[in-house]
Amino acid sequence: MDGFVRVPVREQDAKVRATNFEEVCLGYNKEEAEKEALRCLNCKNPQCVQGCPVSIDIPAFISQVKTGDVEGAYQTISKSSALPAVCGRVCPQESQCEGKCIRGIKGDAVSIGKLERYVADTARELGIKPEGAKEKKGKKVAVIGSGPSGLTCAGDLAKMGYDVTIFEALHEAGGVLVYGIPEFRLPKTAVVKKEIENVKSLGVKLETDVVIGKSVTIDELMEKEGFEAVFIGSGAGLPRFMNIPGEQAMGVFSANEFLTRSNLMKAFDENSRTPIMRPKKCVVVGGGNVAMDAARTALRLGAEVHVVYRRGEEELPARKEEVGHAKEEGIIFDLLTNPVEIHADENGWVTGITCIRMELGEPDESGRRSPVEVPGSEFDIECDAVIMSLGTSPNPLISSTTEGLEINRRKCIVAQEENGQTSKPGVFAGGDAVTGAATVILAMGAGKAAAKGIDEYLSSKQ
Ligand SMILES: Cc1cc2nc3c(=O)[nH]c(=O)nc-3n(C[C@H](O)[C@H](O)[C@H](O)COP(=O)(O)OP(=O)(O)OC[C@H]3O[C@@H](n4cnc5c(N)ncnc54)[C@H](O)[C@@H]3O)c2cc1C
Which ligand 1 atom sits closest to the C-alpha of 234? Predict the structure, then answer.
């Protein structure tokens, strides 16, 4: 069976990691990476590249890993991706590059994500940086938001020679990479900050604590500050709630707030000034990556955690790897279950939640079978905290303060897929602000397409 099975990756033991915030996956070392790289068949027509939204030349970088040329492999990846150490950790590779790998037909797909992570981590340890622009164009472009879409767009424009400034509302750059995805999946100082430094090393300027739409508007940036084009990568950070009775009780959080306190404000650290509730028994509502992150964070803060999701195991939208990790760590899954009411004590603090069992009915517009309530199946779960993880939508601040910017009924900015062009000339957009909550790599793909679109727009203006 040699060659059919991937080289396993080392992980922290489930019992140990359930009590700490250190990274779960330990990645490949040189020997493991070179052995796994040998499994790549170097296909003439590589399907994996088609499965990658930023079209990394995967066979080329894996060939370089085979020969021990990490610097070459890093530069190959950097031509297409500004955030390889991030993507190697959080991309849903199983449904993208690895999902298309020929090896996957009769065995395990090549572990492309773990190899990408190995290259990026080793390059960082060796101090290797991406290659910048040879000539400057003397044109200013503003990028709003420093998440994956903004960082990618900014990095690509800087490589083309544009003078790029990122404006970020928060005091730290990185978007969801710093405030959403927890430290145990994506280390902030060791990984995210270093990749942001790499983007800055291309000449990109970064201004934090600037809220576009409040501190300054897009129209002012273009009319008074000399920016000839703007990219909006402001994400989708506005949480949704269920509107069920009791949702206003103390101890009910949005996953965004709970995770931001823990990740960005380091509330899990006893020395942090930001408070966080350390629940004894916590119910997380939802089944996506965000729900898994909130559940695993609550577990590490000492809680018994139940994930309540209205569809079944097959329909869980979170990555399979994350669901597996959550189960290993002891998270309890109450599937085909939906909350109907949250209960509180006389002081307003959560004491429990009433749920109802569901069964799957006919497929809805999305093709997924709709969950329907089973009459009379209500039951209670005692808990002292409820974390709502039901999705997010874009904050309307930018669209409501920008003249002529079209949005759709979901409050997302309308932009062309191929180049990010919005209804306003010179203004481009991409990532979650356009699609609604999606993935890191799709946001990066949109940032890339918009950088190309901005270059074409500014070149045609000459
Ligand atoms: C908890 C969590 C876990 C996730 N896990 C995964 C995963 O495992 N894999 C995966 O692929 N995806 C995951 N995702 C989704 C992924 O992180 C997002 O799809 C991606 O970050 C979107 O990138 P973006 O650049 O569009 O926006 P964001 O990352 O949201 O960045 C937007 C940035 O814009 C800033 N901003 C907003 N408004 C303004 C303004 N008015 N002025 C200035 N700046 C502004 C914000 O502060 C933020 O920094 C997860 C999301 C969450 C919340």
Answer: 34
